[in-house]
Design brief:
Elements lengths: L6 E6 L5 H14 L5 E6 L13 E3 L10 H25 L4 E4 L7 H9 L5 E5 L12 H14 L2 E3 L3 H11 L1
């Protein structure tokens, strides 16, 4: 990459609101001010901060929200498969250098990790808001294994505190 070119960072945030959504919005709002970076967000169409975003947005992710609990659970599980693949296809097409997962779908990581890793130029990073998952979705052993592998495949992992840094090191090595 020539020194004069900007580093393109594609951010992934599949939740439409909440603390992670706000954190991601605030982070991108600051990062877009850096001349060396070009940042974009891939999110669902109902992302709460879409109208406030001054950075590039792509509301292309499958919407997982629903007022009906059963439909919401079904959409959440469907989004586990659809959204990481959709994001990575768009990120590759946009020629992003870095894909940053503000939240991530560790449950289905084996189904989409090759798309992330086989593109040698694409660097995978994440923010680990919660290093370990408190609640299992389907199978604790499987989920822990996939979460550890996801962390190992990341070039860089952002955490919020020194205690999370220690927890991450103990959990993922």
């Amino acid at each position: 990459m020539p020194p004069a070119s900007k580093i393109k960072v594609a951010f992934y945030c599949f939740f439409p609101g909440g603390g992670i959504g706000q954190y991601t919005h605030e982070l991108l709002s600051q990062l877009m001010c850096l001349e060396s970076l070009s940042v974009s967000l891939y999110c669902p169409p109902n992302f709460e901060w879409l109208d406030k975003a001054k950075y590039e947005t792509h509301p292309v992710l499958f919407q997982i929200s629903s007022s009906k609990p059963l439909i919401r659970k079904m959409k959440f599980l469907m989004g586990q498969w659809i959204n990481p693949n959709r994001f990575l296809h768009h990120a590759v097409k946009s020629k992003a250098h870095i894909v940053h997962f503000s939240n991530f779908n560790h449950l289905t990581y084996p189904a989409w990790k090759n798309l992330a890793l086989r593109n040698g130029h694409l660097k995978q990073v994440c923010t680990a808001h919660d290093v370990k998952r408190a609640v299992k979705i389907l199978n604790r052993k499987w989920e822990t294994k996939q979460l550890r592998q996801f962390y190992k495949d990341c070039r860089l992992i952002f955490v919020h505190s020194e205690s999370q840094k220690k927890e991450l090191k103990a959990f993922a090595g």
